[in-house]
Amino acid sequence: MTEPQLSGRKALVTGGAQGLGKKFAEFLTAAGATVAIADVQDEKGQEVASSIGGPFVHLDVTDDASWDSAVTAAVEQLGGLDILVNNAGIEIAGLFLDLDPEVLRRIFDVNVVGTSLGIKHAFRAMGPGGAAGHGGVVINISSVAATIAFPALSAYSASKSAVDRLTRVAAMESGKLGLGVRVNCIYPGLVPNEMGAGLANEMTTLGLFPSPRRPSAAWSS
Predict the structure, then answer these.
(1) Is residue 172 assigned to a domain?
(2) Is residue 125 assigned to a domain?
(3) For the whole model, what pTM was predicted?
(4) Residue 202, in any domain of the structure
(5) Measured between alpha carbons, how far is 83 from 13 in angstroms, rounded to an integer?
(6) Domain count of the fold of the chain
(7) How far apart are CA 62 and CA 111, in angstroms?
(8) Nearest to 162 by CA among 99, 203, 107
């Protein structure tokens, strides 16, 4: 398979300080893009940015003004913007029996509001008349949890289903308005990183699986 060639492309990866975000940033860099890391974790984010030779911008994805500042800074430091990887997200497991509305709101604030604001500011920057203004692509990160019934992940699954719907509407709007921005969505499965390991342990603690090894099988059911 031919490796993607992204020489000259400018990318912004949210939640890039760790996990999948870090891997996306490394992959894009290896393919030739210049990548800015955006995260609320300043120290970790700066370390990753330094390791890939790109800038770091502070970003709270739940805050509209933070998005405005981060995208403006990224465009200035990168010299443009062609790609947004809307990756930042959180997962907090819990049974319906113990549903905490504040946890539900927190998950939706990061995963749904955060993704929505990312689309908004990417459209404004990449569309005609924007700071970058040459079109581009938005890649939203959903989850296989959006497509299957995984126990104790009701809020997370619902939020990632929302990301799927947001992607489809955003792609339609971009086309209708002639923004020149493609909007796509990918659906990672359970990944053996810090978040994935945490989820596996949570499933065991909640009594849903006998050991942390079992949840991985359920993702393919």
Answers:
(1) yes
(2) yes
(3) 0.87
(4) no
(5) 8
(6) 1
(7) 9
(8) 107
User: Active site includes 187?
Assistant: no
Q: Three-class SS of residue 71?
A: helix
pLDDT digits (tens, 9 = 90+) for 130-179: 999 899 999 999 999 999 988 899 999 999 999 999 999 999 999 999 99
Range of the domain at 29: 10-191
**Is 1 among the domain residues?**
no
Q: Which of 37, 156, 167, 183 is catalytic?
A: 156
Greatest CA separation for the chain: 56
Can you read off the two tokens belonging to residue 20?
């999948």
pLDDT digits (tens, 9 = 90+) for 202-220: 655 655 556 555 444 444 3
Whether the CA torsion 24, 27, 33, 39 is positive or negative: it is positive
Q: Is the four-CA dihedral 174, 178, 179, 185 of positive or negative sign?
A: positive
